[in-house]
Design a protein that fits this description.
Blueprint lengths: L5 H14 L4 E5 L2 H12 L3 E10 L2 E8 L12 E3 L8 E2 L13 E6 L2 E4 H7 L3 E7 L1
């Protein structure tokens, strides 16, 4: 059986690994997932990630999770907003800060995948992929 939403699977793997206090988590690779992880690294929610080839042409992402000095996870909440069955789009006018700018929306725009802060600076809206706090 094929998976219909591989992005939601990656977000769930991250959420479950953080709740289990794991340092690393693996997920199947794609360019879209790598772009989302770039945003998470840039915003300080994830420490880093590395893409490596498992078999011929099959790549996997190894994600290093980030915790506070007290051992608390940096990601309190990570949820998929736009799903394959229900796409959610926001214009620049409707794009408001998430959790008083303590959290972010990750948005797919015509200029690439970026955080809501960056999208507001560039004046673009787009599909809301997920929200992170």
């Amino acid at each position: 059986m094929s998976m219909s939403d591989t992005l939601a699977d990656m977000l769930t793997r991250i959420r479950n690994a953080q709740r289990s206090r794991l340092m690393y988590v693996n997920a199947p690779s794609s360019r879209r997932k790598e772009a989302i992880l770039d945003v998470l690294v840039k915003e300080g929610f994830v420490h880093s990630f590395l893409v490596h080839e498992v078999r011929n042409g099959v790549k996997e992402i190894n994600i290093k999770l980030k915790y506070s000095p007290k051992g608390e996870s940096n990601i309190k909440e990570i949820n998929r907003v736009s799903t394959p069955g229900k796409r959610v789009y926001l214009s620049i006018k409707k794009l408001r800060p998430y959790y008083n700018n303590m959290g972010i929306y990750i948005i797919s725009t015509s200029k690439g995948i970026m955080s809501d802060r960056e999208a507001r600076k560039l004046g673009v809206g787009g599909e809301v992929i997920c929200k992170v706090f």
